[in-house]
Amino acid sequence: MGNGTGIGRVRGLGSAKSGTHHWINQRITAVGNLLLVLWLIFSLLQLPSLDYLAVTAWLAKSWVAVPMILMLISIFYHLRLGLQVVIEDYVHEDGTKFATLLLLNFYAIGGAALGIFAIAKIAFTGAAS
Amino acid sequence: MARPQARPLSPHLSIWKWGPHMALSILHRVTGSSLAIVGALGLVWWLTAAASGPAYYAFFLEQASSWYGYVVMVGITWAFFQHLFSGLRHFVLDVGAGYELKTNKSWSLLIPVAALFTTAAIWLSIFAGKL
User: Is residue A65 part of a domain?
Assistant: First the structure.
């Protein structure tokens, strides 16, 4: 490992000085997921029906749409951090690792954007019948 | 980029005897990765289906309430609680507790049981409500 010398850093060895930030954010989003996904599961169990009208009317409420949006941010942030560690552990070839991490970032941001847009559309345009 | 090829590695997977904590650790990765792909895509699919109108949502419901839909949803539920409970174990380990051999082993054995129990409780209550 690089011992913090200039040449060590140039060779890409040693700490990138962002490990603690990654670690803390993974825990923060873990708590976010814990609260918000449990809320989603128990809310869905409480709904009288999961048909189109019931679900869209429920999602359109602001005290549902806002936690849903927060949940998507928390979930996709958490999965980006988690899968990053998995990729870094198992993909060793530099080029493939770079490409896989790039794909992961696109997936995480794209997936979150798609989900948030869907909730916003339902909340702002109301349930189309 | 020049990298020393012969860097020392610690003894790894091949030499250790499997124990419950190792199984739990790899299960945490497996369930996390499957939640990240199948769970997150399923969630976004459900939301976009609801935003796409009644006809497409009906198609989504048809898939979700088929036998394979239930297999996936029960699987995601189990993966979620397995990952949640072993994630809580990580919080305990993060504060430096729970490393004593016996304690560590009993928590590792208890967590899969708790995950299966919670999954079963939720889905039995759903199926009981349908009858």
Answer: yes
A75 touches chain B (CB under 8 A): yes
The total number of structural domains that make up chain A = 1
pLDDT for B5: 67
pLDDT value of residue A14: 67
pLDDT, position A6:
72
The yes/no answer to whether this complex scores an ipTM above 0.95 is no
A56 touches chain B (CB under 8 A): yes
CA distance A1 to chain B (A): 9
Neighbour count for residue A126 (Cβ, 10 Å)? 11
Residue with tokens 């980029």: B1
Residue numbers of chain B with a pLDDT score lower than 70 = 1-5, 11, 13, 131
Residue A99 Cα, gap to closest chain B Cα (Å): 17
Structure-block tokens of residue B31: 């369930």
Residue B92 in tokens: 């305990």
Q: Is the pLDDT of residue A2 over 60?
A: no
Please tell me the class of the B20-130 domain: mainly alpha
| B90 marked as part of a ligand binding site | no
Residue B82 in contact with residue B31, Cβ under 8 Å? yes
pLDDT in tens, A7-30: 776 676 667 778 899 999 999 999
Nearest one of B94, B69, B90, B75 to B30, comparing CA atoms: B75
CATH number at residue A85: 1.20.1300.10
Residue A107 maps to a domain: yes
> Which residues of chain B does A86 touch, with a Cβ-Cβ cutoff of 8 Å?
29, 32-33
